Amino acid sequence: MMKLRVAGLKQYFGGLKAVDTVSLDAKQSEILAIIGPNGAGKTTVINAITGLRKPTAGTVWLGDKTITGLAANRIAELGIARTFQNIELFEHASVLDNIQLGFYRHRKVTLCAELFNLPSARAEAVNARLAAEKILHYLDLVSWRDKAVSGLSYGIRKQVELGRALCSAPSFLILDEPASGLTREETLDLGYFLRDLAKNRGIGILMIEHDMGLVSRVADHVIAMNEGRILAKGSAPEVQSNADVIECYLGSEMV
Amino acid sequence: MYFDFKTSYNDDIRLIRRPLSGLFYAIAFGTALFSPLVISEFYITESSAIFVLGIIIIGYMISAGMAGLVGLGHAAFVGVGAYTHAILLGAGVPFLISIFSAIAVCALLGVMLAVISLRLSGLYLAISTLIFALAVEHILGSWETLTGGYEGILVPDPIIFGTSFASSINYYYLTLSALVSVIILAANLMRSLSGRALIGLRDSEQAAASLGINVLKTKSVAFALSGAVTGFGGALMSHQIFFITPEAFNMMLSLQIVLAAVIGGLGSITGALIGAVVIGWMPELISQIKALLPVSIRYQPGPDLVIYGAVLIGFVLFEPLGLYGRWKKIENWLLTFPLDRKATFAKTRTYMKSERV
Ligand SMILES: Nc1ncnc2c1ncn2[C@@H]1O[C@H](COP(=O)(O)OP(=O)(O)OP(=O)(O)O)[C@@H](O)[C@H]1O
Ligand SMILES: [Mg+2]
């Protein structure tokens, strides 16, 4: 069982300590949730893990391999997939094309084979399509297959982004507020998918989430952050009853 | 009403997906193949010119339409392709070797441009490609020992394995087969994962990177392919000009390439071809319009640019998807006929995006 480990992670923007000495362990088959108020540094942590920004200090391991500071595409190739807080889809492509691109890290053929449509390229196109179809069926997106992403509702777009990440068959899946903007029903469905992905497919999930209902339903472990630091770690009820966490959220509607 | 029946994923990957479009391509190809037997010499020459333009614009479409790297300097690739080919032919290099060398040189030039503009996008990229083209034009003009400077050089006749393709009808078939090969390669690219990666790059670099796409490498590939195809067009074009000078590859040509892509519709091969036809006939059209103008301004160099500019602005404003986009809307309406679905192409709300990830 592989682990995704982060130790002593710091990310400074000038004088602002957006992330200050954060350590965490995510395991395959488990769901780790990060909660915390706006500006706590949650997104900054996962940007550092996924290589979008080099951390100021700290180490990230995938299994026993150090991946700190690798380029984002290298980290994706190693099997860490992610979604974005503001949905980053390929707007002018169809749902199918978006999801198929998730398969990119498994691409083996050369550009030349693709240009001349050699049998190897055709076989790979079929493989990419098969992988995407499985995801379309799994997430119940079949009826949207050929629609352009730009015209879809917010909830569907979130699903497509999740599907694209899943199509890369990752060992770790990192989600930035997957339930924000979803309706109650959509959130319930999402919870079901997340449990299934972790428990039955062995994917390790690290998710940032504000919806405490969802977090307590699905998360095995919870980390609460504030001002770049970790306030509390533990199971959902433990973290929710932690005095520091309650104080941090006092007056806000989130608890 | 039309129903799409598919029985395997291969059906979707095939180039020709519907029996009807197969028929259409067959008719188009048949017409192209046999029309030289009936049309006059003038139209044969004119058609070859359009085929070459088609190649050039498909080349531009690969970087601008697919990868979203909208450049304003593709005349540079046309020029370097033409000059490399002409110089090598002049030195006695056989046609095929010469033309593949021209393609290779332009691919390298594309990589160079990619390296120069590695982290630029949007307006800054457009400006850097513009300057790049000006620099290339200048080099072509001042490297006199190689290029003959502003006096130009003569382009030897195209002779492949002893057969001359200089006659208008032979040249017609040469350019037609070149165009068909380029179309097939571009279509293969568009349905491959690499082609989709270019589209990914265009719409979100961050998301592309998070899927394992090497953004800088893919950009270089886009420019290299684009440069190679455009340079190929340039090499063929040199045989139409006979005597090439650097001015043949100036801003005006770059503008025409952009204009053709926008008129046809950025991002599709069909669009590029439609654009080539329109731009190919534009000089004719412009001379007709000019005939209506008062004599005092008729012979000034200004009106051409103004007309090109006006057409470009008109399309960007009123038909941003180009003529091919308009056709797609009509086709969609026909296929779904009794069910009118206005909403399909309605402008949709775009969700707010912020710079932060
Ligand atoms: N690129 C950047 N440059 C400067 N400051 C930044 C940058 N990115 C984030 N910050 C700052 O770092 C802090 C943490 O931001 P971050 O986006 O990680 O918060 P978050 O916990 O994800 O909040 P939210 O719940 O609003 O998404 C904020 O104060 C933010 O303004
Ligand atoms: Mg955030």
Automatic annotation (TrEMBL), chain A:
**Molecular functions per Gene Ontology:** ATP binding; ATP hydrolysis activity
Q: Which residues form the ABC transporter domain?
A: 4-252
Does the keyword Electron transport feature in the UniProt annotation?
Answer: no
Q: Which domain of life is it from?
A: Bacteria
This protein's UniProt keywords: ATP-binding, Nucleotide-binding, Transport
Instruction: Supply the Pfam families for this chain.
Output: ABC_tran, BCA_ABC_TP_C
**Transmembrane segment boundaries:** none
Organism lineage? Bacteria, Pseudomonadati, Pseudomonadota, Alphaproteobacteria, Hyphomicrobiales
Could you tell me which PANTHER family the record lists for this protein?
ABC TRANSPORTER ATP-BINDING PROTEIN, CONSERVED COMPONENT OF ABC TRANSPORTER FOR NATURAL AMINO ACIDS-RELATED
State the protein's name: Arginine transport ATP-binding protein ArtM
Q: Name one GO cellular component term.
A: plasma membrane
UniProtKB/TrEMBL annotation, chain B:
Gene Ontology CC, one term: plasma membrane
Alphabetized UniProt keyword annotations: Cell membrane, Membrane, Transmembrane, Transmembrane helix
Query: In terms of domain of life, where is this protein from?
Result: Bacteria
Q: Does the keyword Transmembrane helix apply?
A: yes
Query: Membrane topology per the record?
Result: Multi-pass membrane protein
Q: Give the molecular function GO annotations.
A: branched-chain amino acid transmembrane transporter activity
Could you confirm whether the keyword Membrane appears in this record?
yes
Tell me where it resides. Answer: Cell membrane
- For this UniProt entry, which segments traverse the membrane? 20-39, 51-77, 83-116, 123-141, 171-190, 257-282, 305-324
The name on file for this protein is Leucine/isoleucine/valine transporter permease subunit
Species whose genome carries this gene = Pseudovibrio axinellae
